[in-house]
Amino acid sequence: MHFSMAKACLEAGKHVLVDKPVTPTYAEAAELARIAQRCNRKLMTFQNRRLDGDFLTVKKLIEEKAIEGTQPGCGNTWNLAPHLIDQCMVLFGRPDSVMGLVQNVRQLGHSNLDDSFTIHLYYTNTPRPVTCILRGTLSAVTARPLRFIVRGDQGTYIKRGHDVQEGQMKKHMSPWGPEFGIEPKSQWGEIEVQNENGLPTLKGEYNRIYPNVAGVLEGKEEPLVRWEESAAVVQILQLAFQSAEEGRTLPVPRA
Q1: Which residues belong to any copy of the Gfo/Idh/MocA-like oxidoreductase C-terminal domain (predicted)?
Q2: 3-state class of 217 per DSSP?
Q3: What is the mean predicted confidence (pLDDT) over 183-194?
Q4: Which pLDDT belongs to residue 115?
Q5: CA–CA separation, 253 vs 255, rounded Å?
Q6: 39 Rama sector, left if φ>0, alpha if ψ -120 to 50, beta otherwise
Protein backbone atom coordinates (compact mmCIF):
# COMPACT_ATOMS: atom_id res chain seq x y z
CA MET A 1 0.00 0.00 0.00
CA HIS A 2 2.88 2.39 0.72
CA PHE A 3 4.11 2.12 -2.87
CA SER A 4 0.79 2.81 -4.60
CA MET A 5 -0.17 5.67 -2.27
CA ALA A 6 3.25 7.32 -2.39
CA LYS A 7 3.38 6.97 -6.19
CA ALA A 8 -0.06 8.56 -6.57
CA CYS A 9 0.86 11.47 -4.28
CA LEU A 10 4.18 12.13 -6.03
CA GLU A 11 2.53 12.09 -9.46
CA ALA A 12 -0.13 14.48 -8.12
CA GLY A 13 2.66 16.94 -7.31
CA LYS A 14 2.84 16.34 -3.55
CA HIS A 15 5.86 15.91 -1.33
CA VAL A 16 5.68 12.57 0.55
CA LEU A 17 6.68 11.29 3.99
CA VAL A 18 6.49 7.47 4.16
CA ASP A 19 6.44 5.37 7.33
CA LYS A 20 8.87 2.47 7.68
CA PRO A 21 9.27 0.00 6.09
CA VAL A 22 8.94 2.30 3.10
CA THR A 23 8.01 -0.55 0.73
CA PRO A 24 7.90 -4.36 0.85
CA THR A 25 10.66 -4.64 -1.78
CA TYR A 26 13.88 -2.83 -2.62
CA ALA A 27 12.79 -2.56 -6.27
CA GLU A 28 9.68 -0.58 -5.29
CA ALA A 29 11.73 1.73 -3.05
CA ALA A 30 14.11 2.42 -5.94
CA GLU A 31 11.16 3.04 -8.28
CA LEU A 32 9.68 5.61 -5.88
CA ALA A 33 13.03 7.41 -5.81
CA ARG A 34 12.99 7.61 -9.62
CA ILE A 35 9.40 8.90 -9.62
CA ALA A 36 10.24 11.55 -7.02
CA GLN A 37 13.21 12.71 -9.10
CA ARG A 38 11.10 12.83 -12.28
CA CYS A 39 8.33 14.77 -10.53
CA ASN A 40 10.83 17.02 -8.70
CA ARG A 41 9.21 16.20 -5.34
CA LYS A 42 10.70 15.44 -1.93
CA LEU A 43 10.51 11.82 -0.75
CA MET A 44 11.22 11.29 2.96
CA THR A 45 11.01 8.55 5.60
CA PHE A 46 9.39 8.50 9.04
CA GLN A 47 12.00 6.54 11.02
CA ASN A 48 11.37 7.78 14.56
CA ARG A 49 13.43 5.16 16.39
CA ARG A 50 16.61 6.95 15.34
CA LEU A 51 15.56 9.52 17.92
CA ASP A 52 14.84 7.17 20.84
CA GLY A 53 16.69 8.32 23.92
CA ASP A 54 18.32 4.94 24.54
CA PHE A 55 19.56 4.69 20.95
CA LEU A 56 20.96 8.23 21.13
CA THR A 57 22.74 7.13 24.32
CA VAL A 58 24.25 4.09 22.56
CA LYS A 59 25.29 6.29 19.63
CA LYS A 60 27.02 8.74 21.97
CA LEU A 61 28.86 5.93 23.80
CA ILE A 62 30.19 4.58 20.51
CA GLU A 63 31.11 8.00 19.09
CA GLU A 64 33.01 8.83 22.27
CA LYS A 65 34.65 5.38 22.30
CA ALA A 66 33.50 5.03 25.90
CA ILE A 67 33.35 1.24 25.71
CA GLU A 68 35.27 0.54 22.46
CA GLY A 69 35.06 -2.57 20.29
CA THR A 70 31.27 -2.71 20.44
CA GLN A 71 28.99 -5.65 19.66
CA PRO A 72 25.35 -4.51 20.01
CA GLY A 73 22.33 -6.77 20.47
CA CYS A 74 18.72 -5.55 20.39
CA GLY A 75 15.52 -7.05 21.53
CA ASN A 76 7.29 -9.26 14.02
CA THR A 77 9.87 -8.75 11.53
CA TRP A 78 8.49 -6.20 9.09
CA ASN A 79 7.21 -4.14 12.02
CA LEU A 80 10.23 -4.03 14.33
CA ALA A 81 13.27 -5.15 12.34
CA PRO A 82 13.37 -2.06 10.06
CA HIS A 83 14.05 0.09 13.14
CA LEU A 84 16.82 -2.20 14.39
CA ILE A 85 18.50 -2.56 10.99
CA ASP A 86 18.35 1.20 10.50
CA GLN A 87 19.91 1.82 13.92
CA CYS A 88 22.79 -0.56 13.16
CA MET A 89 23.39 1.12 9.81
CA VAL A 90 23.51 4.52 11.52
CA LEU A 91 26.19 3.18 13.87
CA PHE A 92 28.25 0.97 11.55
CA GLY A 93 27.08 1.50 7.96
CA ARG A 94 26.11 -1.14 5.43
CA PRO A 95 26.84 -4.70 6.65
CA ASP A 96 28.89 -7.16 4.62
CA SER A 97 26.55 -10.12 5.13
CA VAL A 98 23.31 -11.11 6.85
CA MET A 99 21.84 -14.22 8.45
CA GLY A 100 18.16 -14.48 9.38
CA LEU A 101 15.87 -16.79 11.35
CA VAL A 102 12.16 -15.94 11.08
CA GLN A 103 9.55 -18.05 12.91
CA ASN A 104 5.91 -18.34 13.97
CA VAL A 105 6.70 -19.54 17.49
CA ARG A 106 3.14 -19.29 18.84
CA GLN A 107 1.69 -21.14 15.82
CA LEU A 108 -1.13 -18.61 15.51
CA GLY A 109 -2.71 -17.87 12.14
CA HIS A 110 -0.91 -18.66 8.90
CA SER A 111 2.52 -20.26 9.21
CA ASN A 112 4.02 -17.35 7.25
CA LEU A 113 2.73 -14.85 9.83
CA ASP A 114 5.95 -14.61 11.83
CA ASP A 115 6.05 -13.43 15.43
CA SER A 116 9.76 -13.88 16.21
CA PHE A 117 13.03 -13.17 14.45
CA THR A 118 16.77 -13.22 14.95
CA ILE A 119 18.92 -11.37 12.42
CA HIS A 120 22.72 -11.21 12.45
CA LEU A 121 24.46 -8.37 10.60
CA TYR A 122 28.14 -9.06 10.04
CA TYR A 123 30.71 -6.30 9.57
CA THR A 124 34.05 -7.78 8.52
CA ASN A 125 35.57 -4.98 6.42
CA THR A 126 35.88 -2.66 9.40
CA PRO A 127 38.89 -1.81 11.60
CA ARG A 128 37.49 -4.30 14.09
CA PRO A 129 34.93 -6.99 13.16
CA VAL A 130 31.46 -6.26 14.55
CA THR A 131 28.38 -8.49 14.78
CA CYS A 132 24.97 -6.92 15.42
CA ILE A 133 22.40 -9.39 16.78
CA LEU A 134 18.81 -8.20 16.36
CA ARG A 135 15.96 -10.03 18.08
CA GLY A 136 12.23 -9.49 18.37
CA THR A 137 9.41 -11.69 19.64
CA LEU A 138 5.75 -11.55 20.62
CA SER A 139 5.97 -14.75 22.66
CA ALA A 140 7.83 -13.31 25.67
CA VAL A 141 6.09 -11.33 28.40
CA THR A 142 8.23 -9.07 30.57
CA ALA A 143 7.69 -5.73 32.26
CA ARG A 144 11.03 -4.34 31.07
CA PRO A 145 12.07 -5.98 27.79
CA LEU A 146 15.73 -5.94 26.86
CA ARG A 147 16.51 -3.12 24.43
CA PHE A 148 20.29 -3.01 24.06
CA ILE A 149 23.38 -4.85 25.16
CA VAL A 150 26.52 -3.13 23.90
CA ARG A 151 29.72 -4.95 24.79
CA GLY A 152 33.18 -3.48 24.42
CA ASP A 153 36.72 -3.97 25.64
CA GLN A 154 36.29 -1.31 28.31
CA GLY A 155 32.74 -1.91 29.47
CA THR A 156 29.17 -3.00 28.82
CA TYR A 157 25.95 -0.97 28.48
CA ILE A 158 22.63 -2.73 29.21
CA LYS A 159 19.29 -1.00 28.63
CA ARG A 160 15.80 -2.34 29.37
CA GLY A 161 12.31 -0.94 28.84
CA HIS A 162 10.71 1.09 26.06
CA ASP A 163 11.50 4.64 25.03
CA VAL A 164 9.27 7.06 26.96
CA GLN A 165 8.17 9.32 24.09
CA GLU A 166 5.23 7.29 22.73
CA GLY A 167 3.77 6.93 26.23
CA GLN A 168 4.17 10.64 26.83
CA MET A 169 2.37 11.52 23.60
CA LYS A 170 -0.50 9.17 24.52
CA LYS A 171 -0.87 11.25 27.69
CA HIS A 172 -1.04 14.39 25.49
CA MET A 173 2.30 15.76 26.67
CA SER A 174 3.59 18.46 24.32
CA PRO A 175 6.66 17.36 22.34
CA TRP A 176 8.10 20.80 23.09
CA GLY A 177 7.49 20.63 26.86
CA PRO A 178 10.54 20.60 29.15
CA GLU A 179 9.90 17.05 30.38
CA PHE A 180 9.23 15.48 26.97
CA GLY A 181 11.69 12.74 26.04
CA ILE A 182 13.31 12.68 29.48
CA GLU A 183 13.49 9.26 31.09
CA PRO A 184 13.17 8.77 34.87
CA LYS A 185 16.23 7.53 36.72
CA SER A 186 14.46 4.24 37.48
CA GLN A 187 14.64 3.41 33.75
CA TRP A 188 18.25 4.38 33.12
CA GLY A 189 20.54 1.80 31.60
CA GLU A 190 23.28 0.04 33.51
CA ILE A 191 26.85 0.70 32.51
CA GLU A 192 30.13 -0.75 33.66
CA VAL A 193 32.85 1.63 32.55
CA GLN A 194 35.82 2.27 34.84
CA ASN A 195 33.82 1.04 37.84
CA GLU A 196 30.91 3.40 37.17
CA ASN A 197 27.30 2.20 37.34
CA GLY A 198 24.16 3.88 35.99
CA LEU A 199 24.05 6.15 32.95
CA PRO A 200 21.33 8.77 32.34
CA THR A 201 19.42 8.14 29.12
CA LEU A 202 19.74 11.03 26.68
CA LYS A 203 16.61 13.08 25.98
CA GLY A 204 14.52 11.60 23.17
CA GLU A 205 14.09 13.81 20.11
CA TYR A 206 10.89 12.87 18.28
CA ASN A 207 10.13 16.60 18.22
CA ARG A 208 12.81 17.01 15.54
CA ILE A 209 10.90 14.99 12.93
CA TYR A 210 8.29 17.40 11.57
CA PRO A 211 10.39 20.57 11.92
CA ASN A 212 12.95 18.71 9.81
CA VAL A 213 10.28 17.91 7.20
CA ALA A 214 9.45 21.63 7.06
CA GLY A 215 13.14 22.51 6.80
CA VAL A 216 13.62 20.07 3.91
CA LEU A 217 10.64 21.49 2.02
CA GLU A 218 11.96 25.02 2.57
CA GLY A 219 15.38 24.01 1.28
CA LYS A 220 17.06 24.77 4.62
CA GLU A 221 17.87 21.25 5.87
CA GLU A 222 18.80 17.78 4.73
CA PRO A 223 16.42 14.91 5.68
CA LEU A 224 17.12 13.22 9.00
CA VAL A 225 16.79 9.92 7.12
CA ARG A 226 17.86 9.73 3.48
CA TRP A 227 15.59 7.68 1.19
CA GLU A 228 18.47 5.50 0.00
CA GLU A 229 19.12 4.51 3.62
CA SER A 230 15.51 3.36 4.04
CA ALA A 231 15.68 1.49 0.73
CA ALA A 232 18.82 -0.29 1.97
CA VAL A 233 16.96 -1.35 5.13
CA VAL A 234 14.29 -3.01 2.95
CA GLN A 235 16.98 -4.72 0.86
CA ILE A 236 18.69 -6.16 3.96
CA LEU A 237 15.34 -7.24 5.41
CA GLN A 238 14.54 -9.11 2.19
CA LEU A 239 17.94 -10.82 2.40
CA ALA A 240 17.22 -11.82 6.01
CA PHE A 241 13.99 -13.54 4.91
CA GLN A 242 15.85 -15.24 2.04
CA SER A 243 18.55 -16.36 4.48
CA ALA A 244 15.90 -17.84 6.77
CA GLU A 245 14.36 -19.77 3.86
CA GLU A 246 17.67 -21.06 2.51
CA GLY A 247 19.42 -21.63 5.85
CA ARG A 248 22.60 -19.78 4.92
CA THR A 249 24.37 -16.47 5.38
CA LEU A 250 24.01 -14.14 2.39
CA PRO A 251 26.32 -11.35 1.22
CA VAL A 252 24.94 -7.82 1.12
CA PRO A 253 25.51 -6.15 -2.29
CA ARG A 254 27.60 -3.02 -2.22
CA ALA A 255 25.66 0.23 -2.52
Answers
A1: 71-251
A2: helix
A3: 83
A4: 74
A5: 6
A6: alpha
